[in-house]
Every structure is written in structure tokens, then in C-alpha cells.
Amino acid sequence: MIATQKDARRILAAHYPGLKIRLTTRTQIGVRPVVEMSIGLPTLVWRKLDIGADSAVRIGQLTPGGGIDWGWDAS
Reduced to 3 states, what is the DSSP secondary structure of residue 45? Predict the structure, then answer.
């Protein structure tokens, strides 16, 4: 999924309440407590596609094998 920075912050904040979301060009993983992982909430990965305030953000889901599904959709 590719989103604007504003939309990416909204999506990530909905999945990680209370987590300070920082958008950088490095890949970041939203770590979840074990109890949240056991109820099936996705572990998300995100990164800005370029530097600058107008860069889009790519959001994906961490797969059980350690790969990233960049085709993940928030809906």
C-alpha cells in the first residue's frame, strides 16, 4: 500500500495507539506485544519512498517467514 504521509500516520496510529510514529526513509517495524500478536493483529512495516515532506509512504505487513508483503491493504 502506498499512502500520503498524513494518511500513513492515520493508518499506523489506528493500528498502534499510543506509539509515536516516525516516518523516515529507513524501513521500520511496528513491534506488538505477544498478546496482540496472538489475536491476529498485523505487524506492520513502513518507510518513506523519498526524503522530504511530500514523499509517499509505503506500508506493508511482516509475514511469518520474515518477509514483507508490500501489497497489504488497510481496508
Answer: strand
- pTM of the entire structure? 0.84
Q: In this structure, are residues 51 and 43 in contact, taking their beta carbons and an 8 Å threshold? A: no
From the CB of residue 59, how many other CB atoms can be counted at a distance below 10 Å?
Answer: 22
Say how far apart CA 59 and CA 45 lie, in whole Å.
6
Burial class, 51, CB count within 10 angstroms (exposed 0-12 / middle 13-18 / buried 19+): exposed
Measured CA distances, 50 to 19, 21, 39 (Å): 23, 17, 34
Q: pLDDT for 27-72, tens place per residue?
A: 998 877 766 666 777 889 999 999 998 999 999 998 888 899 999 9
Count of Cβ atoms closer than 10 Å to residue 65 Cβ? 5
Cell of 24: 523516515
